[in-house]
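Data deposition worksheet. Section B asks for the primary sequence of the deposited chain exactly as it was used as input, without tags or linkers unless they were present during the calculation. Section C holds the resulting structure in token form. Section D is free text for depositor observations; keep each observation to a single sentence. Incomplete worksheets are returned to the depositor.
Section A, Depositor: J.P.
Section B:
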Amino acid sequence: MHMLATTSKEGFFIRFFFLALFFLSSTTVFAMPTIYWVDAGKSAIYSHQDGETTTIVDKLSSPRAIAVARNKLFYSEDNLRLITLFDLDSNTKLSLSYTYDTAAFPSDITFNPQTSTLYWSQFRSLYSLSSPYTNARELVYESNRSFSKVAYNSESDRLFASMRKAYISEEGFELIESNFENLLTTSAHDIALDEYSSLLYWVTNQGQSCIMRSQLDGSDIEEFDCEGHEFLSEIVVDQDTGDVYWLDISKGTISRANNDGTGRSQIISGILYGRGLALSDGCPLDYNKSEPGLCGCGVSDSDYDSDSTPDCYDECPLDSAKVLSGVCGCGIADSDQDGDGTLDCNDACPNDVSKVIPAVCGCGSSELDSDEDATPDCIDECPFDSSKLTQGVCGCGSSELDSDEDATPDCIDECPFDSSKVTQGVCGCDRYEVEGGCSDFPEITNNHLISTPPTISTQGSKVKILFQDFYKSKRKEKVVYNVTLRKLKKDGRWRTITFRSRKKKALRKKMKKGTYSLSYRATLKRRGRIIAVTGDSPVSTFTIKR
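Section C:
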């Protein structure tokens, strides 16, 4: 047996693309086509799928040719000389009305599923009939030759036919309307097309039963399978896979082989008189589906979330509660628990009808600002006092003013204008409690005014002197610092410089290079009168290096 090593490159890559696409997009086991055949010996038409054989229609009058597509079965009966449409969905019959030669019967039928057009051979003529199948059209009439088998090529919109001449030899022809040309001169009992590999198959029974094939133009004729056949009568090609199926009328069997001739196997046996053979595939480009189903060819009818809506129509194929993504999207309900018109997915407070965001106070709490101080009541300790956010020492409605700046607010300061007293005591405000009675002046002791060494820091020729006077003077009181500064001369004696400073605490001076000593005395004055003087502070020594 000689086999074609390769098919058309274009057909191979097209088929490979679809097989790879559907394999990657689905885990479904590849669907095999349903096989239909005529057993004239039993006056019936049968189908076979998934290992089960079913009687489609029986009690026929010499059934002959069949064509199946899109759940429609067309078959002819010799004695009745007509074609019947059998709806596989409803199991109903419809006898087609057309004009034909009443002396002959339809010998072969083919169907174009894209246009729902039926073609058949009938003695010397070829006919076509389109839906709703009421008016047939004669395509060709041959006065001295009769047509036998037909096959339609949807890719090129061409009809192929084999013809008998004097019922002895058969010739294959390509037909385009009334114009046809010879492709082959050979015995062709039946013909079939592999559209995607652009191959023409035919059966010959001259001397040896063989399956042959060639290009669609009749070139590159080669044997496909010539082993063990007795008398082959029918041949069809699976357009998904390119696999070849044939009916051996002598053996009463239907067998198949891969498109490269390997994997040959017998599928059906026990056929008394096989006459017609067809494969049903409503999705010839979809290796996973034989019928369009709900989603159509090329798309799985799977329902991943089991919500009775196939994924092809389900915007949320993983969410059994939704078939439309809605506002919130898949996996999130479009619910509005508080009925505020904002769906929960966009509502940060789904149980608070008055709020969609928590804001400052949070869900369930009002953002009311009673005193209009730009602070909501939920965090305002004084919600009715626009001048205060916290109660402070004085409480809401009372000022925290400290008139005498003694760190005690007026609301609890008995002497709000006397920084030396927070209670009136015996002497009252603005008078000092001194030993032996009351006085307009404080009793100055070392506990009040203490002279300590100054803090001195130098940076280059700049000196910063921080006086350590811890007495806090009241209003109208001033502290004057009498500073004694001595510079060590080269002869070892000291040069004395004295000055006064009214700076509050710190004194900054620029001084020349040398070694210095410094002390100070603080004088407290009130209304220009000295009321206290400290002793000299301990002497501090420092050096200016430049």
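Section D:
The chain is about 5% helix and 40% strand.
The first helix runs from residue 9 to 25.
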